[in-house]
Amino acid sequence: MLAGISRSLTRRRPPFPLAATAAAAAAAMSSSSSAASNISDRPISPNTTRVAWVGTGVMGQSMAGHLLAAGYALTVYNRTPSKAQGLVSRGASLADSPRAAAAAADVIFLMVGFPSDVRATALNPSTGALAGLSPGGILVDMTTSDPTLAAEIAAAAAAAGCAAVDAPVSGGDRGARNATLSIFAGGDEAVVARLAPLFQLMGKALYMGGPGSGQRAKLGNQIAIASTMVGLVEGMVYAHKAGLDVAKWLEAISTGAAGSKSLDLYGKRILERDMAAGFYVRHFVKDLGICLSECQAMGLSLPGLALAQQLYVSLIAHGEGGLGTQALILAIERLNNTSLEKKGE
Questions:
Q1: Which one is catalytic: 83, 204, 218, 342?
Q2: Is 218 marked active-site?
């Protein structure tokens, strides 16, 4: 299985030398530091700062909503305009492209799906955000994406007299709604610090290092979550087959060493067969694929990550990519020809 994964990754993105990656990141960091001197040091506030948001899906809708509620002038763009109407009805302006959104903002946030979306949204010379952002502006990509792409965007932003920060998040739809997200920030440290008034409206930001460091921190987070989710659903299936009350079992382990944020977020949802997406399976598979590509480049073997990725890929094969990551229970149930819904087995 692992050999098959390796071949698949080689076809998708050839390995790249770590030295080249480090050099690119260093160059982007140098460019970002130079650009930072062009970034206004004016304090960020609703009275002085215009904000734009691209991507108003499950997460983006709530995150952008916090900025709007705090009084910031907000311009939004979404490929499906109807998904932005909730924010527009609350006072946001609707743009017809990322470029138009950026032209109306001092800081623009991206929260889209895949690295290809990030590239098109940020770097397209005709419609991309950097084409519309004025010198001194800041682009913040909160999508989980490729670290090397983050460094590329940082260099492109610097060349345009702007700055870019990669700031993917963890905490799911609940964290987005409650403004309790963990935000992993990479880029120029002074720029990240200046963004604090905006980040604080969405959660807690931690500075991780230069361009791409936020993305690598998030990928490590996804690696940890992947194996945690496998353990959670396997434990639930075991408890079920052993004849235990799975709800009571979850309560019992939640305060011990097996307790986790994943259990808190998803244990009850799984029992209630609530598979609605707080974070889509197809996006998690994307994240784990980036993790595996990074591992391949590093010569790093993480078999737990590879196993979790294959189990999640099986959900997509069954047409379940639009469900939430808690749908992993379905894969383990199928392997064992059982279901937590069934009685009297």
A1: 218
A2: yes
